[in-house]
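Sync notes, pocket subgroup
Present: LS, DG
LS reminded everyone that the earlier model was apo-only. Rerun requested with adenosine-5'-diphosphate included. Inputs:
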Amino acid sequence: MQTLPFSELGISDGILQTIDDIGYEEATPIQTQTIPLLLSGRDVIGQSQTGTGKTAAFAIPAIEMISRQHGKGVQALVICPTRELAIQACDEIRRLTTHTERIRTAAVYGGQDIERQIRLLRGGAQIVVGTPGRLMDHMRRHTLFLDNVKMVVLDEADEMLSMGFREDIETILRDIPEDRQTALFSATMSPEIMEITHQYLRNPEVVKVIRKELTVEEIDQYYYMIPHSHKVEAVSHLMDVYRPVPAMIFCNTKKQVDELVSAMQMRGYVAEGLHGDMKQQARDHVMQMFRGGHVDVLIATDVAARGIDVSGVGAVFNYDIPQDMEYYVHRIGRTGRAGQSGLAFTFVTGSREMNELRSIMRYTRSEIKKGSIPTSADVMESRRRRFADKVRDAVEGHDLEQYRAMIEEISSLHDLSAMDIAAALLEFEMTADGRTAMPCAADDAAFARQERRGEAERSERSDGRSSRGSRGRRDRDRDRNMVRLSIGIGQNAGIEPRHIVGAVAGETGLPGRSIGRIEIADRYTTFDVPAEAVQIVMEALNRTRIMGRRVTARVFTVTEQY
Ligand code: ADP
Ligand code: MG
């Protein structure tokens, strides 16, 4: 795809200077193609994947237009699906207007004090970026006038439609003079988007940038032919062997996201979900936790994930094979850290999905290798290896003098060999009931505990026993340095494990994974925290709110201490 320097796109010197200051070397493909069209006044439909600079593609022409026309009032309106995207777009536009001081940009979105936004709008903004609901709110209050709008942008249109904003968008568009210019940007195109464009865009030029040189070569791609019922197990085993933390799992439906979040949480992973039915506040919270490194797995639908800027995850799982070949590329594009290749796992069920997978291979011109799900023995083996590595690192990198002295002391006291002592110490690391969970070094202990918990649950299933009580007791035996706390809200308040993890991790900075088993009863909830953090956790919970309610944390049971 051809790209050009910004200086060849018909942009005026002032804005070129700003672009140069920001440090953009050349226009991206979507910018190269859409900026001249928009500058010439055409309506444009622009399709290009996330992260390709669509904001500047419409913002630069909008700024040009405003600085040429010297009009009054709001001149350009940008409609975005979510608060996070509206803020991102507003930030990018403001950066592009640093040298055009006269031009001001206001962002209006739900969840922020409306009075403050009203003051901002009264102050005179030529560019307004907003989410549909809040924009309509301001229109009703007559704090936003659209009579002078010359350019409208529907940003991330696919997501707006999937979030059910179609009517709202239409309501807003009807209030804007017809002689405006309209642009629509989106990462994907659907028939519904085309319908909107027929109705509201005038003879639009369609620009599609579909990357042909997909970056998937850098990604190790595997597929697994498994029945649906084995998928949770498969994710767990792959997570345990590869440890691609944090990982991202994509599902095709919101329901599947919710189910998988619970299933993974039950297995002891810190899993969080993201989908279109969630309130913005809840999404922000999840993203905050994820960015803070408190989440092992983020489970999302394509649409919800498109709204977030996440890359460099350890692995991407296609729990459901993507509905669209382009989604596959979007999804797995999130993996691969700088300099390291990424990992992508795709689950395939049945021959129809196998055919879809073959189309994906043709489309991406890449090989997706057939993999086999690691067995429990593989998981064990990989843990054993990791433990061996940790031992080696400790021997090479730590000062173990005092421990050597202790071993010598034990050895001479009881006439034992170093081998005997090492074996006994290893045994101490094993679980109380002799299950062969592997020992882990201190910083890994919490995760290992959770893994063991997952295994206990798995083996109980195969035993045909699944009573929560018995699992609870056995767990307690295992979580020897954990303390169980309780708070007085439960199912009756709609509480979910992620609220607990969120509150504790968010308030104390403890990694979410250090929180142990969470049990939600009707009117109260109990959960394990590391003994050494009890005080901090209790204090933090007592000054915060969970689901809007004050809570008092109490010690529920002190589990056996070492
Ligand atoms: P999209 O809307 O397509 O997902 P954004 O507009 O949010 O993408 O831009 C993604 C990132 O790329 C932003 O950090 C933006 O500052 C940066 N960016 C935009 N244009 C360029 C460019 N020409 N060169 C380098 N970076 C750019
Ligand atoms: Mg965007």
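DG: Residues 431-479, 557-562 have pLDDT under 50 and may be disordered.
LS: The two ends are 63 Å apart (CA to CA).
Action: DG to write up.
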